[in-house]
Amino acid sequence: MPIRVLPETIASQIAAGEVVERPASVVKELVENALDAGAGAITAAIESGGRRLIRVADDGAGIPSGEVELAFHRHATSKIAAIEDLSRIQTLGFRGEALASIAAVSHVTMVTRHEGEQAGTRLRIEGGRQASLDSVGAPQGTIVTVEHLFFNVPARLKFLKAESTERRHIAALITRYAMAYPHVRFTLEQEGQTVFRSSGNGSLRDALTDVYGAEHAEFLLPIAADLPIDDGRDDLPSVGVTGYVSAPSLHRAGRDQMTIFINGRWVQDSQLAYAIVQAYHTLLPSGRHPIAIVMVTLPPEEVDVNVHPTKAEVRFRRADAIFTAVQRAVRHTVIDQAPVAPLSESVFWGSPDWEARRERLARASREHASQLGMDLSEAAPGQHPHQRVRSSDSPTPSLPMLRVVGQVGAMYIVAEGPDGLYLIDQHAAHERILYEQIMAQRREGAPPPSQELLEPAVVELLPEEMMLLEENRSHLEAIGFVVEPFGRQAALVRALPALIAASSPTDALQAVLSEVAAGEKPTEAAAEERLIARVCKQAAIKAGQVLSYEEMQELARRLETCESPHTCPHGRPTMLTLTAEQLARQFGRA
Ligand code: ADP
Ligand code: MG
User: How far is the CA of 108 from the centre of ligand 1 (A)?
Assistant: First the structure.
């Protein structure tokens, strides 16, 4: 075939494919236009998952009658005038492509009335060709109706997913915008039914309740931070991070409930999503993700929004700084505000002098124990002196002081707290304690606690283990191993992390190597933290180990001082609680 320039209609159908991928993209563009027009209420109505009909109505500024036709031209926009404007974008749109693209691949009817005009305008376009234009009576604002989407693009139609899938995408979109714009009243009607409505009263908390329901919303914690882009430079602008993130007890299998808005624009940014997940490090079971709606605000010149036709990706001038700001803001929220356990105000359990009572009870049971001739001279678990891991400016401990009652199954510690009964998994709890102890030492820059073996041990390794060893030697040394390759199929271990100095060098080395093999390692620090968690697991007291009363009390005391006492470093719970109320209910007292 000879080279030729494609006819205008075909060119615009092709271009439309970049902006309008599926029905949800149409909804997104129309909602963004409504928001740019200053709407206070936006209603989206969908039929057949958006294939038959999408209608978005707003009460925004409307379009002057003389400009309605122009709005549908490609690269026609009222939002920028010069290329420099791109670096100070305050609107969601700016490319002037959406209406033209939508009109190229559907039948569109726009009814609009500008705030300054008496009469409205109705314009109809079918597959890019104008069908009619008249003056009509209309309320202020704009109503865009899109019918028969992709009627002239059979290839795209074929790739559309089931109607239910498209409906889900559209609902996800509307609910997210409802959270990011709590002062706008959103309504979504699908197949003639109102499936979602937000109050639009301006409260983000209320919007979250509209979306997630009261039960879930209760576990969403507010973030509010204003962090410097660069710690050392106060001449630079700051990054605002607001929104809500879930308490560690609320999590999802998928990452799709993590929503990020940059300057009011919903973006897909795997880096920032990772920053959020990182903030929950060791607090969530592995493979689980938080619910998060994180809104980042920064000066427009710090972010390039013109990366992709759908504007779903952005680039940051200082990406690392934004990453750190988000991670810090979320981490702070999660650690500070995570609710402990449902608190109750019961007569017996809720007594205000719990601390004194706890001491009294503890003394009494100690005396009782010695009457029975038990040996109390055993050392507390772990060889290290008790370390306070909290820094002085930390908030109050997130775990109340506990009184140990006893041990069951040589596995769990039964304890009493101000609000009820606690069952502590001794292994998981000890893992958490050791982990925070080492991490605290690391933060202070102490060398990794390491213990030299009296005699270096030769450990035979598989070929793939040898490769892992060679690749990860620096990580192993950073956590206290001193080890070197010894011939082609063995390693010479000279020192072990102090915590596991008593284990066999073979077990110790193989355990960490299998840990290295198992996980991805996004950053050096994360890789080492994972190895430390693995060492702590190895070192922690095991299920089946009988503990003395003193050991248990020591364990509980040290757990109390942990920053994140509720989960082990691998994210499994360290304890279960039964509140006084739950007990009363179970025993038919309440
Ligand atoms: P962009 O939003 O990138 O400017 P669009 O093709 O989405 O491009 O819209 C073109 C223009 O039409 C906008 O710049 C705006 O002036 C006008 N417009 C579109 N939708 C609306 C609306 N709902 N209310 C008011 N004006 C609108
Ligand atoms: Mg637009």
Answer: 14
Is residue 381 within 8 A of residue 547, CB to CB? The reply is yes
Mean pLDDT of 496-503: 87
d(CA 458, CA 322): 46
The residue whose CB lies within 8 Å of the most ligand 1 atoms, and thus the one to mutate among 33, 65, 145, is 33
Nearest CA to ligand 1 atom 2: 93
Nearest CA to ligand 1 atom 18: 33
Pocket of ligand 1 contains residue 37 by CB under 6 Å: yes
Q: Choose among 421, 429, 406: nearest CA to 562.
A: 429
**Token pair in block for residue 400:** 């109340």
**Alpha-carbon separation of residue 14 from 6, 102, 554 (angstroms):** 10, 12, 69
Which candidate, 450, 448, 469, places its Cα nearest to that of 529? 448
Residue 19 near ligand 1, beta carbon < 6 Å: no
Q: Which atom of ligand 1 is nearest to the CA of 32?
A: 2
> Is pLDDT of 98 > 90?
yes
Ligand 1 atom 13, closest CA: 77
Instruction: Tell which residue, 112, 110, 16, 9, has the closest CA to residue 54.
Output: 110
Per residue in 215-238, pLDDT (tens digit) is 778 889 999 888 887 766 777 788
Among all ligands shown, which has an atom nearest to the Cα of 63?
A: 1
How far CA 270 is from CA of 260, 262, 276, 520, 530, in Å, comes to 10, 13, 10, 15, 21
Nearest to 224 by CA among 207, 210, 211, 205: 205
Q: Is 142 in the pocket of ligand 1 (CB under 6 A)?
A: yes
Question: How far, in Å, is the centroid of ligand 1 from the Cα of 299?
Answer: 23
Q: Is 91 in the pocket of ligand 1 (CB under 6 A)?
A: no
For residue 432, the model assigns a pLDDT of 93
CA angle 170, 174, 180 (to 5 degrees): 145
Output the CA–CA distances (angstroms, integers) from residue 542 to 305, 437, 536, in the order listed: 53, 18, 11
Vertex 208, ends 203 and 209: CA angle to 5°? 95
Owner of token pair 């963004």: 32
How confident is the model at residue 487, as a pLDDT? 82
**Could you read off the pLDDT of 285-295 as tens digits, one per residue?**
777 889 999 99
Q: Tell me the C-alpha to C-alpha distance, in Å, between residue 154 and each of 13, 24, 107, 160.
A: 12, 18, 15, 10
